[in-house]
Amino acid sequence: MQPTVLPDAAALARHAAVLIAEQARASIAARGRFVLALSGGETPRPMLNELAAMDVDWDGVHVVQVDERFAPPGDPARNLTLLQETLLAHAPLAPEQIYPMPVEAADPAAAAGDYARLLEQLAGVPPVIDLVHLGLGTDGHTASLVPGDAALDVTDADVAVTGVYKGRQRMTLTYPVIDRARCILWQVSGEAKAPMLARLCAGDTDIPAGRIAREQAVVLADHAAAAFLNG
After folding, report:
1. Exposure string (b/e) for 200-221, b if CB count within 10 Å is 16 or more?
2. Which one, of 46, 12, 62, lies nearest residue 185 by Cα?
3. The whole model's pTM is what?
4. DSSP 3-state assignment of 70?
5. What is the pLDDT of residue 41?
6. Other Cβ atoms closer than 10 A to 95
7. Which of 212, 226, 153 shows the shortest CA–CA distance to 183?
């Protein structure tokens, strides 16, 4: 899996946004809608700001979450807060076209099932998401598929609830639904990610990210994150 290496984080954000916009136009032309699963963290923020300004038929865009922390509405820890501050604030995207993971529900397991059924309504049975955007953690995690968590072994559900990771329980898409996506876009930035990016590109299944399907994957990285690729 050979990444496209961009000079810096700004170029990476722009390139990722252009790719997503291209995929959106193609999906809407072919199927009438574009179902986009977005990750959180700080790496996507500049990309989402770039994407918000692009020429896309936003009426056909439907945004779901790759993962979410169990936290109150508006909490800066919520990935939804990032989506509200970027796409919702700056793109002509209606609030009802963003579908938050129901992490405030009293029964998290039942709520995960509800979200899986929502994905079916948006993307078919089984759901095929048009593009899943992923990041990469310094421990090799992606989405909220983290080392040692039981969610890594879920094969019969598209959405799962994790254990506590870095102080928060989470809801996450699982391998089956991620692997069915028409496009999987990795956006990796910063020198701290360099060791894990090298392992991801080498197909190291000992890290959670390395177990994601590779055939439909596009890997974008900045120069700092790509430092170990030729080492």
Report:
1. bbeeeeebbbbbbeeeebbbbb
2. 12
3. 0.96
4. coil
5. 84
6. 8
7. 212
How far is the C-alpha of 207 from the C-alpha of 192, rounded, in Å? 16
Residue located via tokens 């810096």: 8
Distance of CA 98 to the CA centre of its chain: 14
Q: What is the pLDDT of residue 70?
A: 95
Contacts of 229 (CB under 8 A, 6+ apart): 3, 5, 197, 198, 201
Q: What would the two tokens of residue 43 be?
A: 């790496």
Q: How many residues does the chain have?
A: 231
Q: pLDDT tens digit string along 20-71?
A: 999 999 999 999 999 999 999 888 999 999 999 999 999 999 999 999 999 9
- Compute the distance between CA of residue 19 and CA of residue 23 in angstroms, rounded to an integer: 6
Cis omega (within 30 of 0) for bond into 95 = no
The Cα–Cα gap between 88 and 14 comes to 18
Low pLDDT (below 50) residues in the chain: 231
Lookup result for tokens 């865009």: 61
| Nearest to 207, CA basis, from 135, 132, 134, 148 | 148
